[in-house]
């Protein structure tokens, strides 16, 4: 039997849905007995398994393209995922090459580390140009925002920024650094962003049209 989260309410019918992590949510009338609920789930078994698989596939960072090759997002493009005998990860000729025994968790950790290194090299020069000093830089698991700036001027960035083109990453860095000066999205804030990233509208639009990248892994 499936594990599921049961939400009872004044409704009259049973329904089942799958959340973004592949979990089951069952909505049921207040007094309906468990046996009936589980019998219902059993009858929907194929639908549940199929949709759960699809949901998790959509979230997987490694996806098959139309030719059947595996690809992974990196710096704004989908690199082909290849394997080699070595134990390191390499990027060569438009391909991301991983060891034979790679796993999703391994690849995720590597991408997160790359993001950390990128931010460590991108933030200090951008901060110097703006004349601001963040108190800390954190790389987070955030899924709803690419970056944020706390009231104490510590900056948070989603590690999934590694999926974005370098110039978009720079835009997010500049955006958060500008929040050290302006804790809002006022006209003065955007003027400062524009001063340091004249293409910021294009970069914002890229993020808008690639919001699904937030769901990967
Ligand atoms: Zn902002």
Number of domains: 3
Whole-angstrom Rg: 22 Å
Q: Alpha-carbon distance between the termini?
A: 26 Å
Count of helical regions: 6
- Spatial order of strands in the largest sheet: 4-5-6-8-7
Mean pLDDT: 91
The CATH superfamily of the largest domain is Metalloproteases ("zincins"), catalytic domain
**SS elements, strand count:** 11
The description of the largest β-sheet is: 5 strands, mixed
CATH topology descriptor of the largest domain: Zincin-like
CATH architecture of the largest domain: 2-Layer Sandwich
Query: Structural class, please?
Result: alpha/beta
Instruction: Specify the CATH class of the largest domain.
Output: Alpha Beta
* Unreliable stretches: none
Anisotropy-based shape: globular
Order of helices and strands: EEEHHEEEEEHEEEHHH
How much helix, percentage-wise, in residues?
40-55%
């Amino acid at each position: 039997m499936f594990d599921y989260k049961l939400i009872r309410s004044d409704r009259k019918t049973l329904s089942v849905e799958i959340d973004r992590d592949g979990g089951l949510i069952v909505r049921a009338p207040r007094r309906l007995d468990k046996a009936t609920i589980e019998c219902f789930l059993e009858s929907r078994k194929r639908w549940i398994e199929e949709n759960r698989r699809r949901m998790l596939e959509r979230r997987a960072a490694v996806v098959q393209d139309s030719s059947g090759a595996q690809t992974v997002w990196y710096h704004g493009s989908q690199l082909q995922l290849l394997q080699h005998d070595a134990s390191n990860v390499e990027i060569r000729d438009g391909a991301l090459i991983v060891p034979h025994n790679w796993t999703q968790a391994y690849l995720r950790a590597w991408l997160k580390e790359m993001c950390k290194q990128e931010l460590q090299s991108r933030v200090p020069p951008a901060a110097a140009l703006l004349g601001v000093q963040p108190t800390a830089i954190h790389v987070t698991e955030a899924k709803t925002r690419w970056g944020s700036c706390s009231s104490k001027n510590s900056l948070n960035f989603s590690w999934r920024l590694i999926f974005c083109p370098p110039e978009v990453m720079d835009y997010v860095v500049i955006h958060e650094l500008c929040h050290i000066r302006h804790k809002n999205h006022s006209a003065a804030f955007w003027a400062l962003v524009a001063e340091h990233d004249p293409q910021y509208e294009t970069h914002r639009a890229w993020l808008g049209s690639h919001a699904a990248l937030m769901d990967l892994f």
